Amino acid sequence: SVKPAPGGVELGGGAPGVPGAPGAPGVVGRAFTEGDAVEGVRRGGAALRLSEVTVRRADGTYALDQADLEVGFGEIVGVAGVEGNGQSELMAVIGGALAPERGRVELDGADLTRANPAARTRAGLGVVPEDRHHEGCVPELSVAENLHLGRLGEFRRFGVFLDRAALGRATTTVLDAHDVRAPGAFAPMASLSGGNQQKVVLARELALDPLVCLAASQPTRGLDIGAVEAVHGRIRAAASRGAGVLVVSAELDELLALCDRVVVAYRGRLLGPVDPRGDGAR
């Protein structure tokens, strides 16, 4: 259940629309210290901030109802909740695929509420969508092209000719580092399994420079245990380098193990943060 508590809410089991994990602390995982932030990424402040974001569905109901959310630099924040409580719309608003009826989206203090996805990427927002097959990649393009979407110009000689050899080498290096099983750098993205496509999308977003904030929805869905641990390690590493990280997941145990704070999506609101000291969270 979710109920008010000093400093936040308590998270337990059994309430409709809210997952519970009896016996699990409400917030556990990586200890955050300001020293984790890398040079060039300012310490403190908000990497990502949503203020009073409101989105209505076609039937008039609120997918997001004046939702507020803040992700600090070097912090991992989780969004828990049964699917259908506004998580998809939250990610769409953050990524720029959906304009809110009202409210504001800021990245490192800059107003990106009306910015398109490409502008958000240039500003340092990495997005791993839930539907990686249709929103996270272009299946008809090669693995290399998907991995370097928006950055293929780095591999053009004289600004015209694509240096396939250099592109292939760079792609192979990333595939090896992220343990992506692919027939080759120039194999069609569609030839990869869903789990390997997910690894490519995550690798691409983590490679943003600068990476101010990473927003990932269901980042480990469909992955085996070993791959899940590797993804968690890379998310923690991004936060340790100073990026803010937002993780939306239907797996409460994953959020409890990974995040510094957890909020709960419930009927268009973001409740919390969860108080790990509350009896309902233990």
TrEMBL record:
**Spans annotated as Disordered:** 1-22
* Annotated ranges, domain ABC transporter: 48-282
Q: Which GO terms describe its molecular function?
A: ATP binding; ATP hydrolysis activity
Q: Which domain of life is it from?
A: Bacteria
Cite the entry's keywords alphabetically.
ATP-binding, Nucleotide-binding
Short name of any one Pfam family annotated for the protein = ABC_tran
Q: What is this protein called?
A: ATP-binding cassette domain-containing protein
Lineage per the UniProt record: Bacteria, Bacillati, Actinomycetota, Actinomycetes, Kitasatosporales
